[in-house]
From TrEMBL:
Gene3D superfamilies noted in UniProt: ApbE-like domains
Source organism per UniProt: Luoshenia tenuis
PANTHER family, sorted: FAD:PROTEIN FMN TRANSFERASE (PTHR30040:SF2), THIAMINE BIOSYNTHESIS LIPOPROTEIN APBE (PTHR30040)
Function: Flavin transferase that catalyzes the transfer of the FMN moiety of FAD and its covalent binding to the hydroxyl group of a threonine residue in a target flavoprotein.
GO terms for MF: metal ion binding; transferase activity
Claim: Lipoprotein is one of the keywords in the record: yes
EC number per UniProt: 2.7.1.180
Pfam families: ApbE (PF02424)
Protein name: FAD:protein FMN transferase
Cofactor(s) the protein needs: Mg(2+); Mn(2+)
High-level lineage: Bacteria, Bacillati, Bacillota, Clostridia, Christensenellales
Membrane topology: Lipid-anchor
Residues involved in Mg(2+) binding: G167, D281, T285
Length: 335
């Protein structure tokens, strides 16, 4: 068996890294939360204590939204099968957004896939393909309609449902961290929560950020596109991020909530460009599961959201708003 895990870091090609003079000082702080490395970088005259406070905010959200942390809202919900649980207003707001994306995508995005992700356990040292009966049993518990919500920030999970916010929480938190930094006077920053990246204000000298998009068929750091922007969130979901192989068959970590198996629809990666990171987080997964045609239809229905789809053969599809966008430079993928 062959196993591979690639941290989905979209390479940031900042002019400041090239050694150019005249760029004001940048400050970075790194921590570990949401089961990944998180990095906050601010440009210009910034009090480093503000970044420390922002990292502490990330830790508070992690403690609130973690599936495995005893006492978290998600842990308590999963443990209280069939009982109403009062959750934090932030958790409630996030669950509302999550179920809205489930409705938008006809269930292609579904936070109740926890029974499936636990069954496949891609983080195991020796992951294995679950049996058909076990997958069918887990599927009986997967359905976002099993999430019931009522006034007073109360939530109930029915029918054995278990939730996992890993497909949307980092996006939600990135948006909250951006709000916090702006409120504290930070005007130029990059928030990188394990590959969920939100940048605002450009560089302190007025230049925009230039970011690179990973080629899903290439080695880490091999780019298939670059995009230049001052304010932007970008999130990618790809079959190359985490997978294992058995007898020549690859099994990646993006599971279809309807079949219980890794998605196989010709997509290799989906990158979402948007103003809100929560949009990119949820829609990158939703579109990957939905497939090229239905996924692009979802994107075209969302104002201010654009996407790049890379097919397994290397073909690149782009949403209508990117067709004549001079900020986007596409190289050949899969070469």
């Amino acid at each position: 068996m062959k196993q591979r895990s690639m941290s989905l870091v979209l390479c940031l090609l900042l002019a400041v890294l090239s050694g150019c003079t005249g760029q004001k000082q940048s400050v970075s702080k790194t921590d570990f939360a949401f089961d990944t490395v998180i990095t906050l970088t601010a440009y210009g005259d910034v009090d480093t204590a503000v970044l420390d406070e922002a990292l502490a905010l990330c830790q508070r959200y992690d403690a609130l939204l973690s599936r495995t942390e005893p006492g978290s809202d998600v842990f308590n919900l999963n443990a209280a099968q069939g009982e109403w649980v009062k959750v934090d207003e932030q958790t409630y707001a996030l669950l509302e957004r999550a179920t809205a994306y489930s409705e938008l995508s006809a269930g292609c995005f579904d936070i109740t896939t926890a029974p499936l992700t636990q069954l496949w356990n891609f983080k195991a040292e020796q992951p294995r393909v679950p049996g058909k009966e076990a997958i069918e049993e887990a599927l009986t518990k997967v359905d976002y309609h099993k999430i019931e919500m009522r006034d007073g920030n109360e939530v109930r999970l029915n029918g054995g449902a278990q939730i996992d916010l890993g497909g949307i929480a980092k996006g939600y938190v990135a948006d909250r961290v951006a709000e916090f930094l702006k409120d504290r006077g930070v005007r130029h920053a990059i928030i990188d929560l394990g590959g969920n990246v939100l940048a605002f204000g450009g560089l302190a000298d007025g230049r925009p950020f230039t970011i690179g998009i990973q080629d899903p068929a290439g080695e880490r750091g091999t780019l298939m596109a670059t995009y230049t922007a001052t304010d932007l969130s970008w999130v990618t979901s790809g079959s190359y991020e985490r997978y294992f192989e058995v007898d020549g068959q690859r099994y990646h970590h993006i599971l279809d909530p309807k079949t219980g198996y890794p998605v196989q629809n010709g997509l290799a990666s989906v990158t979402i460009f948007s103003s809100q990171s929560i949009e990119g987080d949820a829609l990158s997964t939703a579109c990957f599961v939905a497939g090229p045609e239905k996924g692009m239809a979802i994107i075209e229905s969302q104002p201010g959201v654009e996407a790049l789809f890379v097919l397994t053969g290397g073909e690149v599809l782009r949403s209508s708003g990117l067709e004549n966008d001079e900020n986007l430079k596409i190289m050949a993928a899969g070469q």
